[in-house]
Write a structure and sequence with these properties.
By secondary structure, the protein is mainly alpha-helical. The chain has one domain. It is built from 5 helices and 4 strands. The chain has a two-stranded antiparallel sheet. A two-stranded antiparallel sheet has the order 3-4. Strand 1 and strand 2 form a beta hairpin. Helix 3 packs antiparallel against helix 4. It is elongated, with a radius of gyration of 22 Å. The protein starts with a strand and ends with a helix. The C terminus is likely disordered.
């Protein structure tokens, strides 16, 4: 099982425990113990912004377009993942599910429909982090099953992909309305 968390926009992987068989002792062997031991191992992560990542479902298309549009699509995926998880789980109270779902859905719609210059990227990134942290609260509860934990991971990884798309868009001068191209500055001086 691969457990991942996103804190302040960083995808973090926790270690998992795997059973390993120790060499069997036999005639002429200096191994005196038999049995198994647990040893920590870290599962190799897929790059989080690639179609092969663990939350990217095979029937989904990897979005193209501006960073804000891609972020909106990923937020839509997060809504789908939350809906899938809450069909069978009652870990998260209905009121909280509704609040989280409405926030993600509203952000998704806004990012897919609005002109990119009207988007407050920093506030949107902050909101996706807040939503992810709310979900981690429930994931850390002892009564959270592996299936629920996996469902929450799908939602938070979709939120992570949305933040990554926004961050890439914000840092690309040709796409971002939050920056001015150097040629525009030179024209203003002349």
């Amino acid at each position: 099982m691969n457990l991942s968390r996103i804190y302040n926009g960083e995808l973090q992987r926790s270690t998992t425990w795997q059973q390993q068989q120790e060499p069997q002792s036999g005639p002429g062997s200096d191994t005196s113990q038999q049995g198994s031991a647990c040893s920590p191992s870290v599962e190799p992560p897929n790059p989080p912004d690639q179609p092969g990542s663990s939350s990217f479902k095979s029937e989904r298309e990897w979005p193209s377009g501006t960073g804000t549009y891609r972020a909106g699509v990923h937020l839509g995926y997060a809504v789908e993942d939350l809906d899938d998880m809450t069909k069978t789980s009652h870990l998260i109270p209905n009121e909280k599910v509704t609040e989280i779902r409405n926030s993600m859905s509203g952000l998704s719609t806004t990012l897919k429909e609005k002109n990119a210059t009207d988007v407050d990227v920093a506030a949107t990134i902050k909101e996706t982090k807040r939503l992810g942290n709310q979900l981690y609260y429930y994931q850390d509860k002892p009564e959270c099953s592996d299936i629920e934990r996996r469902g929450i991971n799908h939602v938070t990884e979709s939120l992570y992909h949305a933040r990554e798309a926004l961050s890439e868009w914000e840092s690309t001068p040709s796409e971002s309305a939050n920056s001015i191209a150097p040629s525009a500055l030179n024209d203003a001086d002349g």
